[in-house]
């Protein structure tokens, strides 16, 4: 695999680690994920070359700047030293194709399905928050339900990171999704994904994405508080049926 593609996949994995739905309300997970999502909106995800050797670091820096010059990602350097990066639509599309992950077109299709199950304006929580079990063919605990739920998560990642859909869960780890105001506007405007580049999946890319994503997510869920005073995400009620909004 070319080094530039490896960098794109690692940045995609770090991004997806921020937006995979939270199922385990442990430690500072809710607070850290909230802070990381807010930071992504402003400047993307922090990027580190992951190598201690100065020569290797410089080579990685040249690679990431070349990707920026090719409009595959944007670079952000705030007042602190940490460099942040955010994939462009084209860069994200290439990385997802290399990993054989669902595309933005796939994500919009699932977003439309959630919209079809929602009610506007919502009066009940279940009019707004659509359970993952309404999107998969099995119930909790049934054989294969985790695989189906993970498939929905992966399909929704492109619209989750764009702020068109939000996820949340209860303390039992059952996930629900809702269309945001920006998402409803996009649907009303007839949102369509740009044409995908014809990129073939690479046999090593999927494992690289999964390992990198899980490692980054573990740091967010079990690491120290990003902002100690931030409460962060609030779980949904366990018994959501019939509860009114507001």
Discrete helix count: 9
Q: Which structural class is indicated by helix and strand composition?
A: mainly alpha
Number of strands: 6
Q: What best-fitting shape do the alpha-carbon axes yield?
A: globular
Helix content: 40-55%
- N-to-C series of helices and strands: HHEHEEHHHEHEEHH
- End-to-end span in angstroms? 51 Å
How large is the share of residues in beta strands?
5-15%
- Across the major sheet, the strand order is 1-3-2
**Low-pLDDT stretches:** none
Can you offer a commentary on this structure?
The protein has 246 residues and is mainly alpha-helical. It has one domain. A three-stranded antiparallel beta sheet has the order 1-3-2. Strands 4-6-5 form a three-stranded antiparallel beta sheet. Helix 1 crosses helix 9 and helix 5 packs across helix 7. It is globular, with a radius of gyration of 18 Å.
SSE layout:
Blueprint: H1 3-19, H2 29-43, E1 45-47, H3 54-69, E2 73-76, E3 83-87, H4 89-98, H5 104-117, H6 125-128, E4 130-131, H7 145-161, E5 165-169, E6 175-179, H8 181-188, H9 205-222
Antiparallel strand pairs: 1-3, 2-3, 4-6, 5-6
Helix pairs in contact: 1-3, 1-4, 1-9, 5-7
Jot down its keywords.
three-stranded antiparallel sheet; 246 residues; mainly alpha
How would you sum up this structure in a few lines?
This protein has 246 residues and is mostly helical. It has one domain. Helix content is 48%, strand content 10%.
């Amino acid at each position: 695999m070319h080094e530039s593609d490896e960098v794109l996949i690692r940045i995609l994995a770090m991004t997806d680690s921020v937006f995979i739905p939270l199922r385990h309300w442990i430690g500072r997970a809710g607070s850290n994920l909230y802070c990381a999502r807010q930071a992504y909106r402003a400047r993307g995800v922090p990027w580190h070359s992951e190598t201690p050797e100065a020569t290797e670091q410089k080579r990685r820096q040249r690679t990431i700047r070349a990707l920026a010059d090719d409009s595959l990602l944007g670079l952000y350097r705030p007042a602190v030293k940490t460099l942040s990066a955010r994939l462009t639509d084209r860069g994200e599309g290439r990385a997802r194709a290399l990993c054989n992950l669902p595309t933005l077109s796939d994500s919009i299709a699932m977003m439309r399905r959630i919209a079809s199950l929602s009610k506007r304006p919502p009066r009940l929580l279940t009019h707004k928050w659509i359970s993952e079990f309404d999107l998969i063919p099995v119930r909790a605990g049934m054989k294969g339900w985790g695989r189906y739920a993970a498939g929905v998560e992966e399909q929704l990642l492109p619209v989750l990171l764009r702020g068109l859909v939000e996820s949340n869960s209860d303390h039992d780890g059952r996930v629900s999704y809702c269309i945001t105001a920006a998402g409803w506007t996009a649907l009303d405007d007839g949102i369509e994904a740009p044409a995908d580049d014809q990129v073939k999946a690479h046999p090593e890319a999927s494992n690289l994405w999964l390992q990198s994503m899980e490692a980054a997510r573990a740091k967010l869920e079990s690491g120290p508080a990003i902002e100690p005073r931030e409460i962060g995400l609030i779980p949904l009620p366990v018994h959501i049926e019939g509860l009114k909004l507001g």
